[in-house]
Structures are given as C-alpha cells and as structure tokens.
Amino acid sequence: MNEEGININKLKEFKAKFEEELNKVMKFWVENSHDTSNGGFYNCLDEDGSVYDTTKYGWLQGRQVWMYCKLYNNTQQYHTEEILDVARKGGDFLQTYFKRPEDNKCYFMTTCDGKRMKIQRTIFCECFYIMAMTGLYRATNEEKYKKEAISVMTSVLHWIHVDDSGLGRPKLSGSTPINAMSIPMMVICVLNEVCEDEKELTLQYEEEMNWAINELLKHLQRNGSVILENVDTNGEEIPGSQGRLINPGHAIEAGWFLLNHALVTGDDNLKQTAIEKFIELPFSIGWDSKNSGLYYFLDADGLSPTQLEWNMKLWWPHCEALIAFLMAYKETRNGKHFESFCKVFDYTWAHVSSVCVRSVVNS
User: Fold this and answer.
1) Which residue of 117, 136, 170, 229 has the fewest C-beta atoms within 10 A of its own C-beta?
2) Pick the CATH number of 178-355 from 3.20.20.80, 1.50.10.10, 3.10.180.10, 3.40.50.150
3) Would you say 220 and 227 are in contact if contact means Cβ atoms under 8 Å apart?
4) Residue 308 CA to its chain's centroid (Å)
5) Nearest to 258 by CA among 241, 281, 274
6) Are 30 and 89 in contact (CB under 8 A)?
7) Longest dimension (CA), the chain
8) Which residues are registered as beta bridge partners of 134?
9) Is the distance from CB of 193 to CB of 153 less than 8 angstroms?
10) Alpha-carbon distance 71 to 134, whole Å?
11) Low-confidence ranges of the chain (pLDDT < 70)
C-alpha cells in the first residue's frame, strides 16, 4: 500500500474517533445546557454537567445556535425536530435579550432570565449573533432570520468603515489606530456564512470581502517571515510589545479562512499564501518542540509577551490547526500537512478530548 493509501486508512480511523467525540459532546450539552425555564443555554458547566454559574454569554449563545443549525443542516443524526426546536428557542432568546434593537448592538452578558449585565465595545457579539441568525435561516428557510442577519451585518460594517462611535470606545490621545487581525478575520468568517449559496449576496458583499482579505494579508510582516497580530492602518509594523505580538492560533485560523475563500474563487496565489504563510509558518513558530502543543502568544523577537497566559496551551488553537492542516492536505496531498495534522491530533486527543478530561479528573 502506498503512502496516500495508508493516510486514507488513518483518516478513516480519525473520522471514527471524531464522530464518537462529537456524539459525547452533543450528549453532554443537550442533557445539561438547555435552560428550559428561561430559554437560551447555560454556558458554565462542570465536568459532571452541573451548572456552576447561570450567567449567559452572547458569544456562546450565538455559537451554540449556529452549531445546532450546522449539525441539523449537515448530518442525518442531528437532523431532528428536537435540535431545530432548541436552536429556534436559542435564537429567540438572543433576539429578545441580547440585541439592543435601537442600534443593533448586542450585549456580552445577561442573567439567566435575560437581564443585561455587560456590553463590549467590539463587534464580536454581533458577529456571533449574525452567524446564529444565518444558521437559523439555512435550517428553516424563513426570511426573517436572513433579514435579521443582514440588518446587523450592515451595522457591523458601518462601525468598521464609517463611524465606530456606536461601539462606545473613547478616542484617547495616546492610542494609536491599529489594524487588529481579529477584525478582518471575523468579517471573512461571517461573510462566508451569510453568502453561502447566495449569489446575490456574494456580489453585494464582494467589495467587503476583498477589503477584509487585503487587510488580513497586511499582517504578513518582516519579508514574509512572521504573521503579526497587530499592524498600523497602513500595514506597517508598530513599536513595542503590541506590535511584536504573535497569536499562532489566530494566524492558523485566518489561514483556513483564506484557504476556504481561495478554493471557492479559484485563486491559486491566495491558496498558496494561505497554506505556506498563514498555516505552515505560524505553526512552525508556535509549536512547543519540547513539550508539544501550540503556545497561546509569542513575541516576534523572542522576548516575554505581556500576556500572563502566553505559554498556556488552549484547546481552540489546536482545533483550528486540525481544520487547517486537514484542508491543506485535502488540496495538496502533501504528506507534511498530514504529518502536522497527526501531530496536532495526538496532542489534542491526549490533553483536551473528553476521554482525557475524564481520565484526569478521575485519577
């Protein structure tokens, strides 16, 4: 059997493990996270499923609605009325309690019964709200959800391009305007959701998508040797720790966003840049060669990052790397991408899977 045949057999094994893990995760959240009294979802669950804090978070409410809709739309097992009904109720809770109707700002936190607790001066709660509404539109084919998503998308783009005063951020004399990678990343992510299989919307948002891609590419710095988290608005490196900051997980996530768009549009140059510069490069910089795992933050000059959690190994960068390298291998059949996928899989399965968590807790 040749190398590709061996890899395909291994991928089948990985797929079976992921499906098993998905079922365990879904069982856990379906049984423990649904707030049947108030609507929405509990987010703070202990290992045994008990709720240790009833606060509800906009990011996680939106993500859970989106995930239920994604599974409803794309799998036979979860294409059930129960999953769709809970997703609808989650969407209703978001619309009723998390969105501020007068300006489309979304709250970051509420009490379990929807009393507002905190609002952020960013666009991210709104982005996850849009993804939830888009998911519900795909699952139900009801235009009201599509209109809701486009309405909030319009506000987000206004805050980015025209006037950000609606976000509530004060203009401070010592603050330098920056191009933070998270903004164009999220625009690409959300537009991919909004425009999926929607030719009219794809054309409508084509200029916005091109803007976001160009802004993201500005983060490739130092003659293509590093992806920096923050640059100035002209795409130049900024001084200090903020300018030297590397977030390997963010860069890899941006890489598969770019790769996905390149595959949709047939842009081979963007495909190459996405794989080589936004996936392979930050992975090689961010991987801990001694203990394995991806660092959370690094400094481009090898100095100490100011983030106290810089050397933690969080679950989400490893998830992004799994997606990115699997996509890269699918497109290139390059064995090094499969090797990187296996390396991340082995680390993730050993440290952050539900099997591992239970074994650690019970030992």
Assistant:
1) 170
2) 1.50.10.10
3) yes
4) 22
5) 274
6) no
7) 65
8) none
9) no
10) 14
11) 1-5, 354-363
Taking the C-alpha atoms of residue 219 and residue 221, their distance in angstroms, rounded to an integer, is: 6
Helices and strands per DSSP (H, E), number in the chain: 15, 12
pLDDT of residue 299: 98
What pLDDT does residue 176 have? 84
Residue 1: the pLDDT is 57
- In the prediction, which pLDDT does 175 show? 86
In the chain, where the domains are located: 28-168, 178-355
pLDDT for 2? 63
Task: Name the amino acid, one letter, at 241.
Answer: S
**Is the distance from CB of 232 to CB of 176 less than 8 angstroms?**
yes
- Contact present, 256 and 279 (Cβ < 8 Å): yes
Instruction: Assign 19 to helix, strand or coil.
Output: helix
Q: Which amino acid, residue 29?
A: W
Give the residue from 297, 309, 194 showing the smallest Cα distance to 250.
297
pTM above 0.85, yes or no: yes
Instruction: List Cβ neighbours of 152 (8 Å cut-off, separation of 6 or more).
Output: 99, 104, 106, 126, 129, 130, 133
211 CB contacts (<8 Å, ≥6 apart)? 184, 187
Give the list of residues 6+ apart from residue 177 with CB closer than 8 angstroms, or none: 232, 233
Look at residue 358 in the predicted model and tell me its pLDDT: 46
- CATH fold of 28-168, please? Glycosyltransferase (1.50.10)
Distances (CA, A) of 101 to 98, 150, 161, 355: 9, 14, 21, 43
CB burial readout 294-309, b (16+ within 10 A) else e: bbbbbbbeeeebeeee
Indicate the DSSP class of residue 117.
E
Query: Please, where are the H alpha helices in 274-314?
Result: 281-286
**DSSP string across 22-79:** HHHHHHHHHHHSB-TTTSSB--EE-TTS-EEE--EEHHHHHHHHHHHHHHHHH-STT-
CA 98 to chain CA centroid, nearest Å: 20
CA 180 centroid distance within chain: 15
Task: Identify residue 134 by its one-letter amino acid code.
Answer: T
Give bridge partners of residue 245 from the DSSP assignment: 299
Tokens representing residue 11 in the block: 């991928």
